[in-house]
Amino acid sequence: MADQDKEMTDDYVWLQESEGIGMEERDKVTIIVHSGDLDKIYSALIIANGALAMGMEASLFFTFWGLLRLKKGGLEKGPLSKMNMLGLGRWMVLRRMKAAKVASLEKLLADFKDLDGKIIACEMTMEVMGIRKEDLRADLIDEYGAVGTYVQEARGSAINLFI
Amino acid sequence: MADQDKEMTDDYVWLQESEGIGMEERDKVTIIVHSGDLDKIYSALIIANGALAMGMEASLFFTFWGLLRLKKGGLEKGPLSKMNMLGLGRWMVLRRMKAAKVASLEKLLADFKDLDGKIIACEMTMEVMGIRKEDLRADLIDEYGAVGTYVQEARGSAINLFI
Amino acid sequence: MADQDKEMTDDYVWLQESEGIGMEERDKVTIIVHSGDLDKIYSALIIANGALAMGMEASLFFTFWGLLRLKKGGLEKGPLSKMNMLGLGRWMVLRRMKAAKVASLEKLLADFKDLDGKIIACEMTMEVMGIRKEDLRADLIDEYGAVGTYVQEARGSAINLFI
User: Fold this and answer.
1) Alpha carbon distance A68, C42 (integer Å)
2) Largest separation between any pair of C-alpha atoms in chain A
């Protein structure tokens, strides 16, 4: 019986380990930031920071118009996805955000890095849009990658979003 | 042998249970409704209702422009994401939807609630846009929440979308 | 001990198999292509082809404005999601893509099919927009389906995106 118990225990441990790995692997948020709209950058950072605060990992893959937000001085320059619809200007929304004590994009991004969030810049976008590394805020960027990097992050993530 | 069988059975049951819990936990659709465009609200509700009809759970987290659609009288007031492109007006699309026997947004939303779909309203958006609870259709809303509520729903979902 | 080993082995095999099935089932990318914007079609195809090249499965569900891109002669006719913002015209972006040696949409789509990617056309969109089968590039389409088809693909996918 002792031997059998041991095997049972080993089996259980093996299961726990394999499950544990699986769980951990999937306990990540990966977001493609394709849009450069301010309201969508807000959503991406708020979700990512929320997940990080809850003990998950988070990766943001900046591509197309999203990558423009990582250019030096580019973070708060984006448009709103529905600027005219609400009759609110960009300035007005940023002001209301402040009044509602929502952190600025700069603060959200700083928090994201402090919480060990990972930022990947899309190399193809850099080539297509003629963006050089020195145009980007290199201190924020953990990796310059292509689609393979993205798929690798995403296939093991519990939450995948395209924003 | 009898004892061993019993242990094997317990092991099996334990596995089934742990798998069962895992499966059930993940058999959910969670959608962030960030856009207020009519065609995107359609997509969100059609997907959610399809999933509910197939025995899955569904949660819709209304935020930013999406939340405007839950204001009293706001559901069908949204624009189309590509209004000018097709040369079709909002009215035309709604009319074609009707001709093609696609349910109205109101009907889809009523079905969603009948099938036990869950609606979460984003508190931060309410603050930023100055929307009070009495401005919203409270009968539709199951919960007022923040990013933590969303991440909790999403990390256990098989399908996560940002619309 | 021999019998017990055998049972242990069976148990292990059973686990491997059940895990294997689960893994395989989830090792798929399913993307709803709702947008007809060229830059978003690019993103969808690049992600899908990357996943296919890494041994995953990929399904694209074309709906609303996305389905217009599958009309005969419609693939490169779409607008850009932020045409005016960058001051770049559609033609300019396509030209830069070429200069950066990014494959054309036609090439990406051909690769997608060669790699056994699956394309589903949304029947509801066809009805609403008055698109007939003969208007579409039938050689590309594997299936005409509704929301049930989509949910079935998506619930077993590791990566689900709405583009």
Assistant:
1) 17
2) 76
**DSSP code of B134?**
G
Q: Where are the beta strands (DSSP E) in C68-133?
A: 118-122
Q: Which two tokens stand for residue C11?
A: 């148990």
CATH architecture of A36-162: 3-Layer(aba) Sandwich (3.40)
**Number of other residues whose CB lies within 10 A of the CB of residue A89:** 12
Question: How far apart are the two ends of chain A, measured CA to CA in Å?
Answer: 56
Q: Looking at the predicted complex, does its ipTM rise above 0.90? A: no
The pTM of the full predicted model, rounded to 2 decimals, is 0.83
At C99-139, the pLDDT tens digits run 878 888 999 999 999 999 999 999 999 998 889 999 999 99
Put residue A107 in one of left, alpha, beta given phi > 0 → left and psi -120 to 50 → alpha.
alpha
Angstroms from B155 CA to nearest CA on chain A: 5
Q: Could you tell me the residue ranges of all domains in chain A?
A: 36-162
Q: Cα dihedral sign for C53, C58, C63, C68?
A: positive
Distance from the first to the final alpha carbon of chain C: 56
Q: How far is the alpha carbon of A54 from chain C, nearest alpha carbon, in Å?
A: 21
Nearest residue on chain A to C22, alpha-carbon basis? A22
